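Entry for the shared binder. Reason: the reviewer on the internal report wants the predicted structure included alongside the sequence.
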Amino acid sequence: MNVLITGGSGRIGRYAVREMLQAGHNVTSVDVAPGVVPGVPSLRVDLTDAGQVYGALARSQAEAVIHLGAWANDGQVPDTRTYGDNVQGTFNVFQACADLGVRRIVSASSHQVYGTAVAPPLYVPIDEAHPLRPAGAYPLSKIAGEQAAAYFCAQRGLEILSFRLLGIRTPAAMDAEIERNLADPNAHKRLMWTRCDARDAAYACRLAVEAETIEPGPYNVTGQVNLLDQPSVDLVARYLPQTEIRDGLSGRSSPTSCARARRVFGYQPRYNWSVGERHPEKD
């Protein structure tokens, strides 16, 4: 399959490129930065320019798209650009795919749409039905992207999966993440004491692209154990006392549920990091 990956030089993108190559797909990387995986065709593309997006899709003869390109957080550029560029780029990708006959798209959204950085979750495990409470231009842009995805699925027959990604880190960064969580668990409750190895985020992208049938819509994608090797119920009760604890939060399982991704396209993290479990990247 010919797969175009936007943001192919980014934190997840570089691993998505490798994951798709190892699975035997033909990959074209698209980014404003130079390509980082040797031997992979790489195009310098500004996603806010519709013509460049159409050209990249046509040149790559894409049959599926993994859309990861965006300003990845608030504060990298002024809010007007964070929101405007992310929304414009996502719309351009969806429109070009619809016009050029590319149906399957995995699009990066964010766990930040749930607003846990500024208010406790209403309940755990957090599933995709949890109310959206964006607190910044970045999560606002991601909600707009999800709404655009729903429109293109309904009106143009696309199959778009919006990944609400949580705590994506490279393997090299994981040990430090664990130490920070151990030092001050209260400071890290906004990420539910959960991190996701970038290799697993890339794996989820591949599974979603390859699945014979999917359900369009949002999907939580993250690690599935807490970093602290403690009962998750105890962590929530201590640090998030206002939050309702529902059935399904057992053992060390993450307070953010990936049950939908597991059911629809078989996502099971391969690299669940915690105090007692480490998965360094091999050379």
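Summary line for the report: The chain has one domain: 2-265.
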